Each structure stands twice: as structure tokens, then as C-alpha cells.
Protein 1
Amino acid sequence: MNRSRPLNLLPLRNSPLTPPPAPVPPASQTDPSVGSTGTVGQASAPVVALTGTFLSQGFRNTMNAQAIVAQLGNYRRVSGAALKGMVSQALPAEERQRPDEVRGTVLVTFQDGAVASLSVESENEQFRSFLRDQIDWSLLPAPRQFSLPISRIACTVSVSNGKIRVGVGPI
């Protein structure tokens, strides 16, 4: 492919919407003694310059979404560990050793970084009252502390055979 002649597909060459002409490759890239691939630093320089020029809002939004996903993972890990600690401290040892599994889901709504409301669901009335009354939900980290744009989370807690399992996720 001949790179010395630019391919002119747009008739509006002097229009403000047309991109600037491609940079002329350095002399070392056209020198046959350099080799077919050229020098890495010299070959990547025009690409880096053009990439910086054409950063779009879509690219920035994608990077923002990736940061949110990473922060959500951090939030799940930290708040899950905090919730598991709160449940293990508040739950008596004999209740942890029960052979049948008890499970509950707590929907937590945060407002201004604090717990605004709770909704506890469980088939076991005793476990439902335990989750509602014995756990200090104000100690659960708010999503806002992790720069997350969510205000409601669902926490699932299950206990059986001495094991406590927790899960935290946005809703």
C-alpha cells in the first residue's frame, strides 16, 4: 500500500469538519536500512497524538462505568465483611449450629449517607426479628462512601451448620 498519497474522499478539504492531514512519517521510517517495522517509539508517536486529540465523551463514559464497576466490587467486599461480622457477633452460637438453613433478605435504603429505611423478609419469624432488631444497620457502609450512584441495596443472610453466608448488591 502506498502511504505517500493521502486518500481524499471528502470534497470539502478546507471545511472545519475534516480531520487534519496525517503526519508525515519520520525519515527513519522511510529509510530502508531501519527495517520493515521501524522503531517502536517513532511509530507509536503519531498514534498517541491522534488518540489524545480524538478522546470522545463515549470513551470517558466507558472509563467512568469501569470505575463504578470496580468501586461496586470494593463496596460488596467491604460491606459484606462488615455485615458478616455484625451477624456473627449478634447471633448466639447455638443458633449458628442449626441444621436447617434460615435465610433472610434486607432491603436497605440510604439517604445522605445514612440508613433511611429497612425492609426485612424471611420465612422464619424469629430470624426476621433478629435481622430487624439485633443488627445495627447504621454500621453498614453507605454506597456513597464508595462514590457509587446507588441508594438502595439488598443484603442476603443465610445461616446453617455453623456457617454464615452474606451477600450485598445494588437494587
Protein 2
Amino acid sequence: MTSPTASPDAPLLDEVRAKYGKHWRITREPGGLLRAVHRKEHPDKSRERACILTEVTSRQIEQLSAALFVQQALRAGQEADEQAVQPQ
């Protein structure tokens, strides 16, 4: 049972945290904005030009979840590219 002060979307936010929380610290700011900050990576201009971000914000949990899914896919693609160009 959730507390009376808990947000009605708390179960969905918990689901997003369970899925992405290993790599992202997900918080709700006082104004309601959701912020996800990568736990290990630091901002890097060259990666940001490739849209690989270390901080993602959103007003809706569904949008945050989608943005984190894209970030996960971009990182996987970059890792695959880096492995493909390494000499065997």
C-alpha cells in the first residue's frame, strides 16, 4: 500500500528505477521535473554531439523511460562500433 502523500505515478517511477537505476540516479526535483544522471560517466562534448548524454530530464515518466531507453541503445551502438574497429 502506498502512503497518502505518495505520487499516483510512484509505481511507474519505481518500475523505471528498477529497469535503469543500475546506471542512472533518477530523482524528482521539487517542481516535479524528473532528472536522471548517469552514475559513472561524466559530461563529454564529443559524446554529447553524438547525443550520448549523462543527464536527461523530463516532466513525464513515460518520456524519461523512453529517453533512457534511447541512451542505452546509443551506448550499446557506440560500444559495438568501438569493438568493430579494434584490431584483432
